[in-house]
Amino acid sequence: MSALKIKKGSTKHSAYNLRPTFSDVVEAHTLAVVVENEPGVLARVIGLFSGRGYNIDSLTVAEIDHEGHRSRITIVTTGTPQVIEQIKAQLGRIVPVHEVHDLTVEGPSVERELALLKVCGEGDKRVEALRLADIFRANAVDSTLDSFVFELTGAPEKIDAFAELMRPLGLIEIARTGVAALLRGH
After folding, report:
1. Which of 33, 43, 118, 128 lies deepest, with the highest CB count within 10 Å?
2. Which of 119, 108, 121, 101 is nearest to 31 (CA)?
3. Which ranges carry the ACT domain (predicted)?
4. Hey, what CATH topology would domain 109-183 get?
5. String of b and e for 135-174 (b: at least 16 CB within 10 Å)?
């Protein structure tokens, strides 16, 4: 019988228990993935998410290097830190992927999104919609006698706030581009 007793509530330290501890808090992360611009790459990246039950909150894709045939995929997803690490590791193993960056942890970043919002209304609601658009620096890019289409660029939270204020004024349709993001500085 061993003379070593562990008191209830104490922690036993072992050289085998060196794994980093992760939080159970679900966080949103913005990932920037540079890939070969070739058919099927986006499907493989999306397949990684859907095959493992991960959700994509926002997705933007555009070619960034025409001569080098490279595209940048910006993905906003949510998960625990352990899930995010797993996503990054799995993205890095896809052959046409060149770089994976987690902008949320690599430093301060700039995130912007473009939205078009169609608002129908008459009288005071129409005037209020124009007043709020001015406050949010939204541009009226189309106008009829009973509707406006506003263009708004900004952080996703700004677009969410503007849309919430427009709902009671007659918001009937919204189109959003998804997040485009870059790290600040060098």
Report:
1. 33
2. 101
3. 30-105
4. Alpha-Beta Plaits (3.30.70)
5. ebebeeeeeeeebbbbebebebebbeebbebbeebbbeeb
